[in-house]
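We give the entry.
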Amino acid sequence: MTHICSRRRWLQFGSSMFGSMALSALANDARGASASALATRDAHHAGRAKRVIFLFINGGPSQMDMLDYKPELNRRDGEVARKKDSFLKGSPWRFAQHGQSGQWFSELLPHLARQSDRISVIRSMQTDSSAHPLAIPLLHTGSFQFTRPSMGSWIMYGLGTENQDLPGFITVHPTRIYGGPANYGSAFLPSSYQATRIDDLPTTDGPAERKHPLPNELLAGSQQLTQVLNQSLLNRGQAVPEVQGAIDSLGLSIRMQQTMPQVMNFSDEPQEVLDLYGVGQDGTDSFARQCLLARRCVEAGVRFVQLTHGGWDHHGNLPELPARCQETDQPMAALLVDLERRGMLEDTLVFWIGEFGRQPEAQILSGKVANGRDHNSKGFSAWMAGGGIRSGLAYGATDELGFEAVENKVHLYDLQATILHQLGLDHTRLTYRYSGRDFRLTDVHGRVVHDLIA
């Protein structure tokens, strides 16, 4: 049978083919245009880590129910506490020591407990605010008073990115409140250093479909025209940093159309890996996909990946804590295992933290004692692994009840300084001149916690 192609079909085929060619050519042009802004740069000193995965536990996880064992608090459960009409509240969950390090973990974290010899738990964290709207921006940007560049943006500014066809900074499911986009923005740094936000999680069914409504040829033409106009404005010396940032960002978006669908495609992952993370399993599936995506991103050359898991603000609903732990425990433990067996954990720094922790006394809501805990900025827990961080270490301590840090205190600025140090960046030298002064992530604070470094 003879197949006759109509003129309309031929034009549709031709426009699609040439549109794809145009996108490919435009991607090559954009790669060269933005190479200088995103190119890899020399560190201040030899760093042990090349990349970072930040696990943000949004809401303030309860450390004395997970990581900071308090037998005295449990013994004095029900006694009068500091707050009027409240009482001390011990943990209802059992703790046990694990691994050769003998670190304490509660029964809520069985998978992470098996990684006890890979991680360092910091039990003496402190921050400057116990209010979400202040503490979350402080964690992400080093400031709650003014809009400042996020940690990932500072690292991009200091080191550049290893893969020019992918974002150097990716954030998955970031919080939309309490700082919102500023938590992963670049503020006064060039916009090419801000994060690329991902909300749609990868599937195991093959490459994601492109959702842009324009056909390839029109999309390529539109993007090319935009770049020409931006370049013309740049050549006239008008709003140079802003225009260069727009050119770089658009150039990256063009290149990502060819590379990001491959990273987001889980169909090439063995079933054993999917099962390890908990992909497709009840409870764990969503965060498992985030953690596996983080591994694929850093493997492809992404410098800084942030994952966010919410629902940890347990004022009157502490019985929900086991569900939150079940959703995250297996995926984040699998992330450490997977990085280790691929030889990547030694130069990938993974850290887990909330904006603050919880109090060792029962929450008072509407004048009544509730089954929950209030915020605590004076003593809470975090953990780190890989990237030259000591393994199997329990660092610092809160008082016997868990109200505040009393030994080897680690302020949030100290944690930020230590992360930068492991990447080869001196937090006092990583500065940017803006509005007549030099700014940095840690402002005028922070010290590297050398006890945490292997």
